[in-house]
Amino acid sequence: MIEIGALDKGDQLRNGGIPCVLLTEDEDTRYINILADSSGFRAGEYEIWSYKGCSNIGIAQALNSFINKYAPGTSVVVHRDRDYFRSYALTKGRK
């Protein structure tokens, strides 16, 4: 978690300073900002943290656990690209 800078945010999280964290596998987060804004997120009410790569989903899970434990008032949204999902995983749950 040190490599993505999450521990530096610990105090801010515990003090309720970050209402929402958007976790993404992408290092380039510019389009995630656009997506968040168009989805109704307001600037300053969320932060985007990259967990750097689709193979690092374990880091996203660890961050989610950390945030839920130490900042239960902070929402977590995880973004994953569909390019590494099998077609079954994409359609699972859709009917």
Task: Please tell me about this protein's structure.
The model has no long low-confidence stretch (mean pLDDT 80). Helix 2 links the parallel strand 1 (20-24) and strand 2 (47-50). This protein has helices at 10-14, 30-38, 57-70, 87-91, and strands at residues 20-24, 47-50, 75-79. Helices cover 35% and strands 15% of the residues. The chain is globular and about 35 Å long. The chain is an alpha/beta fold. The protein has a three-stranded parallel β-sheet, covered by helices on one side.
Summarize the structure.
With 95 residues, this protein is of the alpha/beta class. The protein has helices spanning 10-14, 30-38, 57-70, 87-91, and strands at 20-24, 47-50, 75-79. The chain has a three-stranded parallel β-sheet, with helices on one face.
Please render the helix and strand layout as text.
Layout: H1 10-14, E1 20-24, H2 30-38, E2 47-50, H3 57-70, E3 75-79, H4 87-91
Parallel strand pairs: 1-2, 1-3
Keywords:
95 residues; 15% strand; globular; alpha/beta; 3 strands
- CA radius of gyration: 14 Å
- The number of helical elements comes to 4
Strand order of the largest sheet: 2-1-3
* Fraction of residues in helix: 25-40%
What quaternary form is this?
A: single chain
Question: How many strands in all?
Answer: 3
Overall mean pLDDT: 80
Low-confidence stretches: none
Shape: globular
Taking the sheet with the most strands, its summary is: 3 strands, parallel
> Approximately how much beta-strand content do the residues carry?
5-15%
Distance N terminus to C terminus? 37 Å
Order of helices and strands: HEHEHEH
Alpha-beta content class = alpha/beta
